């Protein structure tokens, strides 16, 4: 039978790929961690780790075991949070996987407000790309996922969808600000700062450009913070979602010009794992996301 200590030890070894590193993270002796690994392998009659020169790698049985271990640990955490909730406590841990542009923008406001209202809840926010986000939620490593243009996946449940308006982002006083709405074609005469192909934003912008046009950015980056910083110097132009520049618009540092095309919107999805119930803390944080991101036209 797997006990709580063995579960956490093996989970940490799988994450670190090393017994020594896992022991350091757990603040225990390496011999204690190694003993737990050997006992579990003896119980199952198969190796759960492949011993390689550069560390440990899960075997096929080990992959099955680690999925079970992580589900069990998450279930324990959810149970603990519910027991605390029955005592009238707002307590627990919520793990969220999201994208960089969201973490640096409106989601940051959601996190700050939620932490202020629920100081006993620990929020862990991981920034990652779309495929990493999907895998984190599907595996149970993250309870909640918030990302743009997520594909359908039966391992996850879609909770809410928000449509975010795309626009050209420029410095105040830029010549384009004389237009109430702009097309991508209107921006091509100016130096472009574009999202790299790693970001879901790039193919949308390319689809909105004239078929005969060639998008040739002066700067291409996967950092939305750099994009916003560069366009503060006219005549640079970039393309972002309205929510990506909330704070800059409030401060008067940037201008947002909606794109005229009907397709100029990005789909933002809020998801969680299909299997298992959410903790009360995660449920509350999902509601906070819905409240913030569902306010008016984004």
From TrEMBL:
UniProt domain HTH lysR-type: residue ranges: 5-59
Domain of life of the native organism: Bacteria
Similarity annotation: Belongs to the LysR transcriptional regulatory family.
Keyword terms: DNA-binding, Transcription, Transcription regulation
Gene3D superfamilies linked: 3.40.190.290, Winged helix-like DNA-binding domain superfamily/Winged helix DNA-binding domain
Matching Pfam families: HTH_1, LysR_substrate
InterPro entries per the UniProt record, alphabetical: HTH-type_LysR_regulators, LysR_HTH_N, LysR_subst-bd, WH-like_DNA-bd_sf, WH_DNA-bd_sf
Protein name: LysR family transcriptional regulator
């Amino acid at each position: 039978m797997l006990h709580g200590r063995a579960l956490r030890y093996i989970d940490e070894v799988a994450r670190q790929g090393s017994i020594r590193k896992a022991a350091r993270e757990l603040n225990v002796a390496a011999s204690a961690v190694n003993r737990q690994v050997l006992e579990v392998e003896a119980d199952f009659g198969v190796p759960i780790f492949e011993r390689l020169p550069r560390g440990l790698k899960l075997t096929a049985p080990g992959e099955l075991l680690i999925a079970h271990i992580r589900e069990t640990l998450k279930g324990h955490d959810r149970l603990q949070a519910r027991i605390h909730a029955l005592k009238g406590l707002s307590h627990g841990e919520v793990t969220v996987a999201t994208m960089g542009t969201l973490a640096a923008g409106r989601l940051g406001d959601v996190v700050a407000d939620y932490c202020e209202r629920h100081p006993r809840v620990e929020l862990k926010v991981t920034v990652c790309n779309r495929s990493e986000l999907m895998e984190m939620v599907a595996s149970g490593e993250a309870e909640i996922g918030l990302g743009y243009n997520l594909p359908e996946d039966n391992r996850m449940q879609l909770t809410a969808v928000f449509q975010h308006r795309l626009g050209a982002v420029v410095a105040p006083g830029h010549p384009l600000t004389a237009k109430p709405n702009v097309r991508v074609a209107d921006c091509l005469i100016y130096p472009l700062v574009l999202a790299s192909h790693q970001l879901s934003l790039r193919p949308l912008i390319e689809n909105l450009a004239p078929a005969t046009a060639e998008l040739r950015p002066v700067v291409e980056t996967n950092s939305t913070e750099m994009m916003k910083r560069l366009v503060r110097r006219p005549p640079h132009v970039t393309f972002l979602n309205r929510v990506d520049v909330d704070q800059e618009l409030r401060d008067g540092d940037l201008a947002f010009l909606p794109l005229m095309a009907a397709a100029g919107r990005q789909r933002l999805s809020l998801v969680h794992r299909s299997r298992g119930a959410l903790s009360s803390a995660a449920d509350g944080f999902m509601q906070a996301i819905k409240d913030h991101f569902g306010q008016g036209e984004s």
